[in-house]
Write a structure and sequence with these properties.
Blueprint lengths: L1 H29 L7 H24 L5 E2 L3 H20 L6 H25 L8 E2 L14 H16 L3 H28 L3 H7 L18
Antiparallel strand pairs: 1-2
Helix pairs in contact: 1-2, 2-4, 3-6, 4-5, 5-6
Length: 221
Protein backbone atom coordinates (compact mmCIF):
# COMPACT_ATOMS: atom_id res chain seq x y z
CA UNK A 1 0.00 0.00 0.00
CA UNK A 2 2.85 2.39 0.82
CA UNK A 3 4.61 1.62 -2.47
CA UNK A 4 1.42 2.28 -4.43
CA UNK A 5 0.87 5.48 -2.45
CA UNK A 6 4.41 6.66 -3.27
CA UNK A 7 4.03 6.12 -7.02
CA UNK A 8 0.51 7.54 -6.94
CA UNK A 9 1.80 10.62 -5.14
CA UNK A 10 4.60 11.05 -7.68
CA UNK A 11 2.19 10.73 -10.62
CA UNK A 12 -0.31 13.24 -9.20
CA UNK A 13 2.44 15.73 -8.33
CA UNK A 14 3.79 15.43 -11.88
CA UNK A 15 0.39 15.88 -13.56
CA UNK A 16 -0.79 18.69 -11.28
CA UNK A 17 2.51 20.52 -11.65
CA UNK A 18 2.11 20.45 -15.42
CA UNK A 19 -1.47 21.73 -15.09
CA UNK A 20 -0.34 24.49 -12.72
CA UNK A 21 2.40 25.59 -15.14
CA UNK A 22 0.03 25.52 -18.14
CA UNK A 23 -2.52 27.48 -16.12
CA UNK A 24 0.10 30.08 -15.18
CA UNK A 25 1.15 30.41 -18.84
CA UNK A 26 -2.49 30.92 -19.85
CA UNK A 27 -2.83 33.51 -17.08
CA UNK A 28 0.05 35.57 -18.46
CA UNK A 29 -1.49 35.40 -21.95
CA UNK A 30 -4.66 37.10 -20.65
CA UNK A 31 -2.73 40.29 -19.98
CA UNK A 32 -2.27 40.67 -23.73
CA UNK A 33 -6.00 40.39 -24.43
CA UNK A 34 -8.82 42.89 -24.00
CA UNK A 35 -11.96 40.82 -24.52
CA UNK A 36 -15.22 41.50 -22.62
CA UNK A 37 -15.35 39.67 -19.31
CA UNK A 38 -11.56 39.40 -19.33
CA UNK A 39 -11.29 40.43 -15.66
CA UNK A 40 -13.38 37.49 -14.44
CA UNK A 41 -11.49 35.18 -16.79
CA UNK A 42 -8.22 36.37 -15.23
CA UNK A 43 -9.57 35.78 -11.71
CA UNK A 44 -10.67 32.27 -12.69
CA UNK A 45 -7.27 31.54 -14.20
CA UNK A 46 -5.60 32.69 -10.99
CA UNK A 47 -7.90 30.34 -9.05
CA UNK A 48 -7.14 27.46 -11.44
CA UNK A 49 -3.42 28.00 -10.86
CA UNK A 50 -3.88 28.19 -7.09
CA UNK A 51 -6.09 25.07 -7.11
CA UNK A 52 -3.53 23.00 -9.05
CA UNK A 53 -0.65 24.26 -6.90
CA UNK A 54 -2.60 23.53 -3.71
CA UNK A 55 -3.24 19.96 -4.85
CA UNK A 56 0.48 19.52 -5.48
CA UNK A 57 1.32 20.90 -2.02
CA UNK A 58 -1.25 18.76 -0.21
CA UNK A 59 -0.27 15.63 -2.16
CA UNK A 60 3.38 16.08 -1.14
CA UNK A 61 2.43 16.57 2.53
CA UNK A 62 -0.48 14.16 2.81
CA UNK A 63 -0.77 11.64 5.62
CA UNK A 64 0.10 7.98 5.03
CA UNK A 65 -2.90 5.81 4.07
CA UNK A 66 -4.69 3.72 6.67
CA UNK A 67 -6.78 1.97 4.05
CA UNK A 68 -7.15 1.91 0.26
CA UNK A 69 -9.94 0.63 -1.95
CA UNK A 70 -8.98 -2.60 -3.68
CA UNK A 71 -9.29 -3.43 -7.37
CA UNK A 72 -8.86 -1.58 -10.65
CA UNK A 73 -12.34 0.00 -10.80
CA UNK A 74 -11.87 2.51 -7.93
CA UNK A 75 -8.55 3.61 -9.44
CA UNK A 76 -9.88 4.06 -12.98
CA UNK A 77 -12.98 5.83 -11.65
CA UNK A 78 -10.89 8.25 -9.59
CA UNK A 79 -8.50 9.17 -12.40
CA UNK A 80 -11.10 9.47 -15.17
CA UNK A 81 -13.55 11.27 -12.86
CA UNK A 82 -10.84 13.80 -11.99
CA UNK A 83 -9.55 14.62 -15.47
CA UNK A 84 -12.35 13.80 -17.94
CA UNK A 85 -13.87 17.28 -18.22
CA UNK A 86 -10.43 18.93 -18.27
CA UNK A 87 -9.52 16.83 -21.32
CA UNK A 88 -12.94 17.44 -22.90
CA UNK A 89 -12.43 21.18 -22.55
CA UNK A 90 -9.51 21.00 -24.99
CA UNK A 91 -11.46 18.82 -27.43
CA UNK A 92 -14.59 20.96 -27.72
CA UNK A 93 -14.72 24.61 -28.85
CA UNK A 94 -16.00 27.35 -26.54
CA UNK A 95 -19.49 28.71 -27.26
CA UNK A 96 -19.38 32.09 -29.00
CA UNK A 97 -21.92 33.86 -26.81
CA UNK A 98 -20.83 36.62 -24.44
CA UNK A 99 -23.78 36.25 -22.03
CA UNK A 100 -23.42 32.49 -21.79
CA UNK A 101 -19.69 32.82 -21.22
CA UNK A 102 -20.22 35.31 -18.38
CA UNK A 103 -22.67 32.92 -16.65
CA UNK A 104 -20.24 30.05 -17.21
CA UNK A 105 -17.35 32.06 -15.78
CA UNK A 106 -19.50 32.84 -12.73
CA UNK A 107 -20.21 29.14 -12.12
CA UNK A 108 -16.55 28.27 -12.62
CA UNK A 109 -15.57 31.03 -10.17
CA UNK A 110 -17.96 29.74 -7.49
CA UNK A 111 -16.82 26.15 -8.06
CA UNK A 112 -13.12 26.97 -7.80
CA UNK A 113 -13.35 29.31 -4.81
CA UNK A 114 -15.35 26.75 -2.85
CA UNK A 115 -13.02 23.95 -4.00
CA UNK A 116 -9.99 25.83 -2.69
CA UNK A 117 -11.75 26.27 0.66
CA UNK A 118 -12.71 22.58 0.87
CA UNK A 119 -9.20 21.47 -0.09
CA UNK A 120 -7.75 23.75 2.58
CA UNK A 121 -10.08 22.19 5.14
CA UNK A 122 -9.39 18.65 3.99
CA UNK A 123 -5.69 19.37 4.31
CA UNK A 124 -3.33 16.41 4.57
CA UNK A 125 -6.23 13.96 4.16
CA UNK A 126 -6.54 14.94 0.48
CA UNK A 127 -6.29 12.10 -2.03
CA UNK A 128 -7.51 11.53 -5.58
CA UNK A 129 -7.75 7.77 -5.08
CA UNK A 130 -10.32 6.21 -2.74
CA UNK A 131 -8.07 6.18 0.32
CA UNK A 132 -8.65 6.60 4.06
CA UNK A 133 -6.07 8.82 5.76
CA UNK A 134 -7.90 10.78 8.45
CA UNK A 135 -11.62 11.28 9.01
CA UNK A 136 -12.54 14.95 8.53
CA UNK A 137 -15.98 15.85 9.95
CA UNK A 138 -15.71 19.58 10.69
CA UNK A 139 -16.24 22.72 8.60
CA UNK A 140 -17.94 22.01 5.25
CA UNK A 141 -17.73 18.30 6.10
CA UNK A 142 -20.20 18.89 8.92
CA UNK A 143 -22.80 20.00 6.34
CA UNK A 144 -22.39 17.26 3.71
CA UNK A 145 -20.02 14.30 3.55
CA UNK A 146 -18.63 15.22 0.12
CA UNK A 147 -18.56 19.03 -0.17
CA UNK A 148 -15.59 18.99 -2.54
CA UNK A 149 -17.60 17.02 -5.09
CA UNK A 150 -20.43 19.56 -4.87
CA UNK A 151 -17.93 22.34 -5.57
CA UNK A 152 -16.42 20.39 -8.47
CA UNK A 153 -19.92 19.79 -9.88
CA UNK A 154 -20.49 23.57 -9.97
CA UNK A 155 -17.22 23.98 -11.84
CA UNK A 156 -18.17 21.21 -14.29
CA UNK A 157 -21.56 22.83 -14.95
CA UNK A 158 -19.70 26.02 -15.83
CA UNK A 159 -17.41 24.12 -18.20
CA UNK A 160 -20.38 22.37 -19.86
CA UNK A 161 -22.10 25.71 -20.37
CA UNK A 162 -18.93 27.36 -21.68
CA UNK A 163 -18.33 24.58 -24.23
CA UNK A 164 -21.98 23.69 -24.70
CA UNK A 165 -22.61 20.89 -27.18
CA UNK A 166 -24.15 17.43 -27.29
CA UNK A 167 -20.70 15.92 -26.81
CA UNK A 168 -19.91 18.14 -23.81
CA UNK A 169 -23.27 17.41 -22.16
CA UNK A 170 -22.70 13.66 -22.64
CA UNK A 171 -19.21 13.93 -21.16
CA UNK A 172 -20.63 15.94 -18.27
CA UNK A 173 -23.21 13.24 -17.52
CA UNK A 174 -20.46 10.59 -17.51
CA UNK A 175 -18.41 12.84 -15.22
CA UNK A 176 -21.23 13.14 -12.68
CA UNK A 177 -21.82 9.37 -12.72
CA UNK A 178 -18.12 8.69 -12.17
CA UNK A 179 -17.88 11.22 -9.34
CA UNK A 180 -20.88 9.68 -7.60
CA UNK A 181 -19.31 6.24 -7.93
CA UNK A 182 -16.03 7.69 -6.68
CA UNK A 183 -17.79 9.06 -3.59
CA UNK A 184 -19.33 5.64 -2.93
CA UNK A 185 -15.91 3.99 -3.21
CA UNK A 186 -14.50 6.48 -0.72
CA UNK A 187 -17.34 5.87 1.69
CA UNK A 188 -16.77 2.12 1.54
CA UNK A 189 -13.11 2.38 2.56
CA UNK A 190 -13.87 5.04 5.19
CA UNK A 191 -16.52 2.80 6.78
CA UNK A 192 -14.07 -0.07 6.77
CA UNK A 193 -11.24 1.99 8.29
CA UNK A 194 -12.99 4.28 10.79
CA UNK A 195 -15.50 2.79 13.24
CA UNK A 196 -17.03 6.23 13.85
CA UNK A 197 -17.90 6.76 10.17
CA UNK A 198 -21.33 5.11 10.45
CA UNK A 199 -22.38 7.54 13.17
CA UNK A 200 -21.04 10.46 11.11
CA UNK A 201 -22.96 9.23 8.05
CA UNK A 202 -26.17 9.08 10.07
CA UNK A 203 -25.75 12.71 11.16
CA UNK A 204 -24.55 14.26 7.93
CA UNK A 205 -26.17 13.83 4.47
CA UNK A 206 -24.05 12.62 1.57
CA UNK A 207 -24.44 15.40 -1.00
CA UNK A 208 -27.41 17.66 -0.27
CA UNK A 209 -27.46 19.71 2.97
CA UNK A 210 -30.50 19.65 5.20
CA UNK A 211 -30.24 23.42 5.61
CA UNK A 212 -29.95 23.06 9.35
CA UNK A 213 -27.68 25.28 11.34
CA UNK A 214 -24.18 23.72 11.48
CA UNK A 215 -21.29 24.93 13.56
CA UNK A 216 -18.09 25.58 11.63
CA UNK A 217 -15.13 25.36 14.00
CA UNK A 218 -11.55 26.36 13.28
CA UNK A 219 -9.66 24.24 10.74
CA UNK A 220 -8.46 20.96 12.18
CA UNK A 221 -9.98 17.78 13.35
Amino acid sequence: MLTEDFFGRAAIVFIMTILAVLSAITLFSYFYQSAPGNSLAIVNQVLATVLSALQVFLTVRRLPPKGTAQGIEPRVTSVVGTFLVVVAMFLTPALQNETVQMVALGLIFIGMVSSVFCLYWLGRSFSIMATARQLVTSGPYSIVRHPLYICEATFVLGMILSHFSVVMVAIGVVQFILQYRRARNEEAILRETFAEYNEYARRVPMLFPRFLRAEVPAPGQ
